[in-house]
Description:
The protein is 29% helix and 0% strand. It is mainly alpha-helical and 127 residues long. Keywords: FAD, Flavoprotein, Oxidoreductase.
Amino acid sequence: MAYGGIMDRIPEDATPFPHRAGNLYKIYYNVNWQEQDNVNSQKYIDWSRRVYNYMTPFVSKSPREAYANYRDLDIGSNNVGITRYTQASVWGRKYFKNNFDRLVQVKTKIDPENFFKHEQSIPPLHY
Length: 127
């Protein structure tokens, strides 16, 4: 997906989605296979990781950014049960950059018991 144009004029903190100015493209790595068994699953997963690593010199750095709707569990995931702020910061800052702390504050007010969660959700602050 190409970026640029008016996207560059929207401040990073205007919405939770910060990936605007300076980003030319969004790359989506997707691997699918049709086999019914899991015999070759690891082979396909390893291949996708090699492609991801190969692309490293050509993509954003410090941190390597990510798009939340393309979840990447290789950058981390919540524990079963309680997820700590420091743990979630690893992927949260890649997805939301400096907006992560603000989103944690919202999550703390709206869902303090962390009812709405998934493997890379934003935790409430008291966790």
